[in-house]
Design a protein that fits this description.
heterodimer; A: mainly alpha; MetI-like fold; B: alpha/beta; Alpha-Beta Plaits; 2 domains; 6-stranded mixed beta sheet; elongated
């Protein structure tokens, strides 16, 4: 491996520890922002689904507020979010730079997207199932957990896969606030210093990462489809 | 007992108020199989959803065993719903759960242990004769099997009432028949009160003892199935009864110029509708022998309810004009309503 890199990708070999560091940074951003966005997006997606007109807990004001909030954040390009949310980052994370500084904008960039994905996934649930559950005396909370979430597991797994992969794309931009990561690594070395082998190595790592996520998501979706 | 009193349910359709159910009052006694029939859009599905408040009526009372459930707080309403099972046209089974998992769904939180739940599920599946499919997923079942599972699930909490919303409308005639047989068996063995929503008169005829005919949100006729069948008052009821009989084909034959409807001079084509004719009375033979007429039976559809015949025949009668008239008079005197469809007698 060392030998191979030395001969074919000399720059990767020379900057190996930076490369590993970049992978770590990307992984940390992906996991933290992903987990937080997953939880918040799932909750918001469920709230949107049950509060919309005809939903089991119809509530127009709540729906309207969340709906507009999501549209607002989905309209802002991520690169602008990165800098615009700096004050909030400082408040929440104590800093607006490095990996810690990138988590807040990543969450804001990713959650609205995931919320819409969750909303779409839950909308696939046949309303007949909800009606059947209500007719059996299920409470709204039971309907959410035992019907909506349970019956949409496959669709939610697919939504999560799409979101995780798009989040990986967002982390590449996080270099703008000095967060490092693979995107930043590829720009600084591969592009700025014209070290093509570094660009290639980054791409290969990302392709592997995306494939893994896609495989895992597909696997979970398949296991939950009957 | 279910008492619906002055139920009104409106929908707002693009700013226009639509009365889906307009002042409907019906009473379903314990042990009844109560049929509600109407064309789609008549409001029958909306009405049945008022019984378990899946759709809350704008006004009116829903009294179940003496309690007006429209006034119950949410938690008590959910408890009340557990005693009102419901099955649907499209079964509404949870695709991610097995047959056993679906039937166990309403038993969670019922206070039964896991073992007891398993036993109960097994018992329910045996009751609907599908215990061999306990481990299968709904997607692996046929329509009839799915409805059996749905029935087992609806019965899990030992309800006193079972609501069937077009439960057989997505099934073929044979499967429909087997599901209806099952419902009748459950009604007999468990004493469960059943409310059946349908657009098929056959369903009413096969299992119901009471019927309400709905049109445009109102009940136009209701009562014992036998009474309604033998003496239908509303035009809609008569249409529904006709729709189950093939006697109405006579008009089709006429329209299409079917050869059987070509009459020779002097012949009469008539529909004989039997109203409470005793099965033991051989009226057609009597007419032939007594008045020396010839009768060619083109269509016949006779249903025996109790010891009475319902339905009738379409016949072509030939013979001397006088005798034909006498024969027709004789039919009238025997509670047979004569409807001349085509007349080739020389007009007097």
């Amino acid at each position: 491996m060392q030998e191979f890199l030395l001969n074919n990708m000399p720059n990767v070999s020379a900057h190996w520890s930076d490369f590993v560091e970049a992978m770590k940074d990307t992984l940390i951003m992906e996991l933290w922002a992903g987990i937080i966005a997953f939880v918040i997006g799932l909750v918001l997606g469920v709230v949107l689904t049950v509060t919309k007109t005809g939903g089991i807990l119809e509530n127009k004001p709540v729906y309207k507020v969340i709906d507009s909030f999501i549209n607002l954040f989905r309209s802002i390009p991520f690169i602008i979010l990165l800098t615009a949310l700096m004050p909030l980052s400082r408040l929440v994370m104590g800093t607006a730079i490095y990996v810690r500084g990138a988590i807040v904008p990543l969450v804001f960039g990713c959650t609205p997207f995931f919320t819409r994905q969750v909303e779409a996934a839950l909308a696939e649930t046949d309303y007949g199932l909800i009606e059947a559950a209500l007719s059996m005396g299920s409470s709204p909370i039971e309907v959410i957990f035992r019907v909506y979430l349970r019956e949409s597991t496959a669709a939610l797994a697919r939504a999560t896969t799409i979101t995780a992969i798009s989040l990986l794309g967002l982390t590449a931009m996080a270099g703008a606030v000095g967060a490092g990561g693979l995107g930043d690594f590829a720009i600084r070395y591969g592009h700025d210093r014209n070290m093509t082998d570094i660009t290639w190595a980054t791409v290969i790592v990302l392709v592997i990462a995306v494939s893994l996520v896609q495989w895992l998501g597909g696997h979970i979706a398949k296991k939950n489809t009957h | 007992m279910i008492e619906l009193k002055h139920i009104v349910k409106e929908f707002n359709d693009n700013g226009r108020d639509v009365h889906a159910v307009n002042d409907v009052s019906i009473t379903v006694n314990d042990g009844d199989i109560y049929g509600i029939i109407g064309f789609s859009g008549a409001g029958k599905s909306t009405l049945v959803r008022c019984i378990n408040l899946l759709g809350r009526p704008n006004s009116g009372e829903v009294i179940i065993d003496g309690t007006d459930i429209t006034g119950l707080p949410a938690k008590e309403l959910r408890e009340a719903r557990k005693k009102i099972g419901m099955i649907f046209q499209h079964f509404n089974l949870m695709p991610s759960r097995t047959v056993a998992g679906n039937v166990a769904y309403p038993l969670k939180g019922s206070g039964l242990s896991k073992d007891e739940i398993n036993k109960k599920v097994q018992k329910l599946l045996e009751m609907v004769e599908i215990s061999d499919k306990a481990g299968a997923y709904p997607s692996q079942l046929s329509g009839g099997q799915k409805q059996r599972v749905a029935i087992a699930r609806a019965l899990a909490n030992d309800p006193k009432i079972l609501l069937c919303d077009e439960a057989t409308s997505a099934l073929d005639p044979q499967t429909t028949h087997s599901i209806l047989k099952l419902l009748k068996k459950l009604n007999k063995e468990l004493g469960i009160t059943i409310v059946v929503i349908t657009h098929e008169m056959d369903v009413i005829k096969t299992i119901c003892n009471k019927v309400a005919v709905m049109e445009k949100g109102k009940v136009v006729e209701s009562g014992d199935v036998m009474t309604v069948f033998t003496k239908p008052e509303a035009k809609l009821t008569r249409d529904f009864i006709k729709s189950t009989s093939n006697l109405s084909k006579a008009e089709e034959f006429l329209r299409d110029g079917n050869p059987t409807t070509r009459l020779k001079p002097g012949e009469v084509m008539a529909r004989l509708n039997y109203n409470n004719v005793r099965v033991s009375e051989p009226i057609i033979s009597t007419a032939i022998l007594k008045y020396q007429v010839y009768m060619n039976i083109i269509l016949a559809d006779v249903e025996i309810v109790g010891d009475l015949s319902i339905g009738g025949t379409v016949v072509i009668i030939s013979g001397e004009a006088d005798n034909i008239n006498k024969a027709l008079e004789y039919f009238e005197s025997q509670n047979v309503n004569v409807e001349v469809i085509k007349d080739a007698r020389i007009s007097a």
